[in-house]
């Protein structure tokens, strides 16, 4: 198998349910790259679920942890990082994303996201569709502000999206064949 490497960290951003984790995992498997899901990383580090952190420390408590973890991950050897949907809320995070990595916005509407997410109770901020629509609308400009590239995901499968991402990363010189 041909080996690939990343020259910079790649951050997937976008609304809940956009497929950030699935696309990142698919790329990791196909190209032998390391991938980390920020929420999973946070849950392991904290020893509790995102839902519990929200319930116990509030959204700001969760955002403080998320900000620390983003800096931590951006300093590691380049990885594929699927970010939580709210990572773009803080200005500090938007700067970290832009400075440290190559950022891909996977676009999705709140209505499509709802049909993709299996268990909505794991997403404390996806309480009802009206709320999710407002949240998605207010965040779209922030996703686009940090993104080097935006990719539409509506009605598309994980593989098709992953191959488009692969092309984008190769063209940008972020995904390269490993030099022997
Ligand atoms: C959030 C999205 C979630 C998780 C937390 C907050 C948000 O991640 O970080 O529930 O504010 O949009 P996913 O985008 O992976 O669902």
Described by strand count, sense and barrel closure, the largest sheet is: 5 strands, parallel
**Strand-residue fraction?**
5-15%
Structural class: alpha/beta
Q: Roughly what is the average pLDDT, rounded to an integer?
A: 95
Query: What's the helix-strand series?
Result: EEHEHHEHEHHEHE
Number of helices: 7
| CATH architecture annotation name | 3-Layer(aba) Sandwich
CATH topology call: Rossmann fold
Q: Helical amount among residues, as a percent range?
A: 40-55%
Query: How many independent structural domains?
Result: 1
Uncertain residue ranges: none
Task: Provide the spatial order of strands within the biggest beta sheet.
Answer: 3-4-2-5-6
Identify the CATH homologous superfamily.
P-loop containing nucleotide triphosphate hydrolases
Key descriptive features of the protein:
180 residues, alpha/beta, Rossmann fold, five-stranded parallel sheet, two-stranded antiparallel ribbon, 7 helices, 14% strand, binds shikimate-3-phosphate
């Amino acid at each position: 198998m041909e080996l690939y490497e990343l020259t910079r960290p790649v951050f997937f951003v976008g609304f809940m349910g956009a497929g950030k984790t699935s696309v990142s995992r698919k790329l990791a498997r196909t190209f032998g790259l390391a991938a980390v899901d920020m929420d999973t990383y946070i849950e392991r580090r904290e020893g509790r679920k995102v839902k519990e952190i929200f319930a116990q420390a509030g959204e700001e408590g969760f955002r403080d942890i998320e900000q620390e973890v983003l800096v931590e991950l951006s300093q590691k050897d380049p990885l594929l990082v699927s970010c939580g949907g709210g990572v773009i809320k803080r200005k500090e995070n938007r700067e970290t994303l832009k400075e440290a990595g190559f950022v891909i916005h996977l676009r999705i509407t709140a209505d499509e996201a709802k049909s993709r997410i299996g268990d909505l109770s794991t997403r404390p901020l996806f309480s009802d569709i009206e709320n999710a629509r407002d949240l998605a609308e207010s965040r779209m400009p922030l996703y686009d502000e940090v993104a080097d590239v935006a990719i539409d995901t509506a009605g598309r499968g994980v593989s098709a999206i992953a191959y488009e991402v692969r092309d984008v990363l190769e063209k940008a010189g972020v995904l390269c064949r490993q030099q022997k």
